[in-house]
Amino acid sequence: MKTDSFALRHLGPRETDLPKMLETIGVETLDQLIYETIPDDIRLKQPLQLEHIMTEYEYANHIRQLGRTNKVFKSYIGLGYHPTIVPPAIQRNIFENPGWYTAYTPYQAEIAQGRLEAILNFQTMVIELTGMEIANASLLDESTAAAEAMALLFDVRSRDQKKNNVCKFFVSEEILPQTLSVLQTRSTPIGVELVVGNHQEFDFSNEFFGAILQYPGKYGQVYDYADFITKANEKEIKVAVAADILSLVKLTPPGEMGADVVVGTTQRFGIPMGYGGPHAAYFATKEEYKRSMPGRIIGVSQDANGNRALRMALQTREQHIKREKATSNICTAQVLLSVMAGMFAVYHGPKGLQYIADKVHGMASTLAEALNKLGVYQTNTAFFDTLVVKADAKKVKAIAEKHEINFYYIDEETISISLNETILFTDVNEVIAVFAEAVGKEAFEVSEYALENNYPMHLNRKSEFLTHEVFNKYHSETSLMRYIKKLERKDLALNHSMISLGSCTMKLNAAAEMLPLSMPYWNTIHPFAPLDQVEGYTKMLKKLEHQLSVITGFAGTTLQPNSGAQGEYAGLMAIRAYHLSRGDKERNVCLIPASAHGTNPASAAMAGMQIIVTKTMENGNIDVEDVREKANQYKDQLSCLMVTYPSTHGVFESAIKEITQIIHDNGGLVYMDGANMNAQVGLTNPATIGADVCHLNLHKTFAIPHGGGGPGVGPICVNEKLLPFLPSNPFVAVGGEQAITAISGAPYGSALVCLISYGYICMLGAEGVTNATKYAILNANYMKARLEAHYPILYSGEKGRAAHEMILDCRAFKAKGIEVTDIAKRLMDYGFHAPTVSFPVAGTLMVEPTESEDVAELDRFCDAMIAIRQEIEEATAEEPNNVLKNAPHTLAMLTADTWSLPYTREKAAYPLEYIAENKFWPSVRRVDETYGDRNLVCSCAPIEAYM
Ligand SMILES: *Cc1c(COP(=O)(O)O)cnc(C)c1O
């Protein structure tokens, strides 16, 4: 046995465990189990054609060497991405800390108070810097946040505007080009007409419902938008502003000018550029629009003792993501990055941010003055950090590249130079030298800031920000380190115990996969850097695309979408473009089975499709006859079917090929939701089942950590038919021959974290990824075998097998007064995070162990579930004062002088033996689900507010 094989590290069960596990399941061999699970006609007969397997050590060398073929130039490109200083304390204690990056989305608030507080800090920071009333927990990137703003403003049109079909949206020509491209994608299918123009010439006609402005403009010009916003509001035109977050430290925030929505990226608050992502976008708006707000909002509520506790607000709404009425499909966002950006503000505080902003502006002013002396004239009449100069671009480019410097070359004689937090006088002097050489003059050096402010006095920010204690308390590394640790301790992540989230695949995020993210060769590259500087990135990304194409059986892949839901949208937009390219303008109907994840109908609605829901049969399978009937009924309008495979019920439906054939026979295409790909890799694939396109959640199947709710990567893989329509980017040549406009701002989406999936596949190889699938199925069926005598298992395959996950039916316990939530909360006392609650069936738990958990952990979880089953047995509907209803139990309860509950403290906190040596204490009692929504508070209010 090769003991240096990465597969041994990634897979939980040891070979010696197999006999016992197989016996429990009741099969002779692992292959027998697989044959009984996956229908014969879709099983792959050949191993995947992937390159040779690397050990962890070989991969580390490989990725270092490949990284060195990227050229890390000083970037003055700007356009929404800036070099930044990642505070080492944040890098080490959050970014590189599994306590933070392996956490799940904080649905279980009682064991997520740490990251909930960190996100609340982020929201507070956004609210105060933008001058708005509410903010969400992050969005995918600035460009899609701008599109979400447009969708929100479209959604909140007045009754008259809706009646008169007011559908024009003004886009300032100062908007970032990648944002314009995403706005183009997102506007057409929902019936919004974009009008791009100069905001100074806008006529405020009542044909417009909204407008978006960039602050400062794309090349750095600072405009005062107060007049524009006032005039627009008089005409019921609502205004969104895409704003640079650092500039808001110095400039009047859009909220104070009356903006309705403010969006942007928080990348430059300590998040590496990473060749495009991941970074947290922010979205802030007015309280009155809270019900239309995209994404998640963290809100303040209280626990069973009336103590302050945080939770995701308006959460019940999200579980259905509004389905076909949706204006947004955001599910996974960018939580880890928002935690980091929020912590950047905590660490620097208001004074530190002032200092950084002053420095950036000071350097920009100094450079402007120096260039002026060289006769290189600056044309921005007001700026914060970006200059536009007139010079021979070709000449400057040649010299600059010798100095390893990138500017942005607007045209042959116009160059923009964007400064940032990392710039020192030596850098400014180097830029001066470049221009001096270009214009044939003597270079000189500067060592003092120019004194002048280069934006109008009246735009100087006057309001205070970040006055809350949290932003003024943790400015030494010791105190910050302890604050981060204090929060981390409140959260249960994968470094404590398994998180068996059905559909979400919380597998190992191996250190060997994560380490390269911290390498400067990979993380300090601008997404629009010239292609000859990104050889390593291009190679890695192309290889990953190829690996994913091989795994799905498809012709091509794009990595652009930043989440699974965004992948759905991208896939549906490609399908739409395909039909349109063939003149099939009527093909607009999307069939979706009733059991689909909420993002499916939401994505279809955003792609402008008409959603027809198809029935599910008693046994949970798709009703084939209903699909046939509806496909037939709509055969002239059929665009596609969206289907999850194996199903959201955790079953490989054997009729899948028949279903996809029906769709094709009626002129439609098949979109496969690939969230359950962990049950397919190496054994079957989307192409084989007859799909035309699928998304993959790299943060589920391909080892990118969940980060507490993001980052995610949601590539789509397509067959030949859809290859021409893969999305483009305005700066980098990506996408098909008839490419649709951009899905997200960066050409390869969150390129940095793609390294994780690349490493995963390189180190596991064809054999390892296939074994991962087999072991995922093994683990699920082992748990099924252990649990089925205690909990009814809803749905299984024809031969009685689960796929990689299973649904435990808890609905009958209602008779004893026990809800599925009570079980979820009680699991915390046993040291576990609950499985998926009430999806896809209300009142159930969906368990997915993944291949990374070993038998001992599976057994502990099963023991806990069996013990809870006994507790349910003891419960009665008449007496709700029981161990389940009171769960979770906190340390404060256990150690209080009085104990008046009708069971022992030991039963409350140490019901099984294994718990004692690794006890996890929930930091609050059960959080009130409704209180927080009735009193929505989504920022750190002064402490008096809770008294
Ligand atoms: C997770 C999931 C999605 C959404 O993916 P995100 O990456 O969270 O946007 C869609 N469908 C199913 C079945 C899922 O489990």
UniProtKB/TrEMBL annotation:
The modification N6-(pyridoxal phosphate)lysine is found at K700. One of its GO terms (biological process) is glycine decarboxylation via glycine cleavage system. GO terms for cellular component: cytosol; glycine cleavage complex. It comes from the Bacteria. Keywords: Oxidoreductase, Pyridoxal phosphate. Its cofactor is pyridoxal 5'-phosphate. It catalyses: N(6)-[(R)-lipoyl]-L-lysyl-[glycine-cleavage complex H protein] + glycine + H(+) = N(6)-[(R)-S(8)-aminomethyldihydrolipoyl]-L-lysyl-[glycine-cleavage complex H protein] + CO2. GO terms for molecular function: glycine binding; glycine dehydrogenase (decarboxylating) activity; pyridoxal phosphate binding. Residues 772-889 form the Glycine dehydrogenase C-terminal domain. Its EC number is 1.4.4.2. Residues 9-435, 475-725 form the Glycine cleavage system P-protein N-terminal domain. The glycine cleavage system catalyzes the degradation of glycine. The P protein binds the alpha-amino group of glycine through its pyridoxal phosphate cofactor; CO(2) is released and the remaining methylamine moiety is then transferred to the lipoamide cofactor of the H protein. The glycine cleavage system is composed of four proteins: P, T, L and H. Belongs to the GcvP family. This is glycine dehydrogenase (aminomethyl-transferring). The lineage of its organism: Bacteria, Pseudomonadati, Bacteroidota, Flavobacteriia, Flavobacteriales.
